[in-house]
Amino acid sequence: MKMVEEDVVIVGAGIAGLATGVALQRLGIRVLILERSPELRAAGAALTLFPNAWLALDALGVAHKLSPLYSPLKTGVVTDVGTGATQAISYAGTTESGLGAGPRSVHRKTLLEALAEELPVGAIRFSSHIDAIETQSQEDSSIAVIHLRDGTIIKSKILIGCDGVHSIVARWLGLGTPVDSGRSAVRGLAVFPDGHGLKQEVKQFLDVGLRAGLVPLNDKEVYWFLTCQFSPKEEIMAGDPESIQREVLESYVKDFPEVYKDMVRHCDLSTLTWAPLMFRYPWGIVFGKLSKGNITVAGDAMHPMTPDLGQGGCSALEDAVVLGRHIGNSLIKNRGLVPGEIAQALNGYVQERKWRVTWLVIGAYFSGWIQQGGTNWWMKFLRDVFYKILFSKIFSAVDYDCGKLPNVPFSSELGNPKKTE
Prior knowledge:
Elements: E1 3-11, H1 15-26, E2 31-34, E3 46-49, H2 51-59, H3 63-66, E4 75-80, E5 86-90, H4 92-95, E6 104-107, H5 108-116, E7 124-125, E8 130-138, E9 141-148, E10 153-161, H6 168-173, E11 179-191, E12 202-207, E13 210-216, E14 221-228, H7 234-237, H8 241-252, H9 258-265, E15 273-279, H10 282-286, E16 291-292, E17 295-297, H11 312-334, H12 339-371, H13 377-394
Parallel strand pairs: 1-2, 1-10, 2-7, 4-12, 10-17
Antiparallel strand pairs: 3-6, 4-5, 8-9, 9-10, 11-14, 11-15, 12-13, 13-14, 16-17
């Protein structure tokens, strides 16, 4: 049995976990990130980062590595597959607000690698499986004790669960299991070696129970997705990529325009996934135990949401900065990670985040329900109102600044002033 002591342990090396690790590293705090996979996971192929995410990335010191690689999105077109009617939408409000340089769709793998590069060698421990979590009393506070499958026991002043929808840390806190929204999503990356020839705009397609879209990432790659109100048999969702591709083409998008079906045909099968869309009930966030002592959660572990506002990854980046700010302020005030003060800092983070992410969860669910509604005249009316009036109101959520990280004038490990160049 091996015993290890750490300042901060983060569970999960996804967007939330890596971003939180970078935030704390910027404060001079040593972190250990436990990831159960043998390498960085990039499921989902790509995601769109809105201005709030770019502001968070800027606070983390990473935005400059990504923004030159991707062009901003300014316009989009929504097509009703049944009638052929189109409606233009504008993202101008999200690019001219002065709050960030977005929105831009980015490769998920590129984002993860950009964050991971900011961490010291050894900060991520792959193939780490957690068997149990407990706490031990220590003077007037407690420490988190993590038991790994290989027999290692890690004692940590702070434990942060960034381990996704099925978070073991969220379960330890007593948070309810996320629920199935009744919808599922297929995501993939289409590759055109000779170029795709598409405009730099978002194309969406709506049909009864279906919503699909495609977003060019560069001149050769296009991110595409399909969400549906029903799911195929489990063996198809968990099956080989060729079966998924065939099922999408033959059973879901056969009436879609050729430009969309071409994306599915040109998909890099290694990027293709099909998964249910999960979310946490809003009251589970507002009234749930999001932190206990020196343990808390962030990202999908705290607030899983459907992708209809494109805010899952964006809000995870916000979490990292806000959590880092509260821990950093406590660090400065107490000149170190004082166990008795950590719980107060984590509670401050929870109080700042829970209402914002609750409204994002509600807005995402509401948006998806309207866009994938039925053929009733009132649903068609709601969709028309949504894109003409409500779209800009709901998407005003992207105009949000999560703030900056504090400047810590000393090393949290040594308690000495930082060396300056």
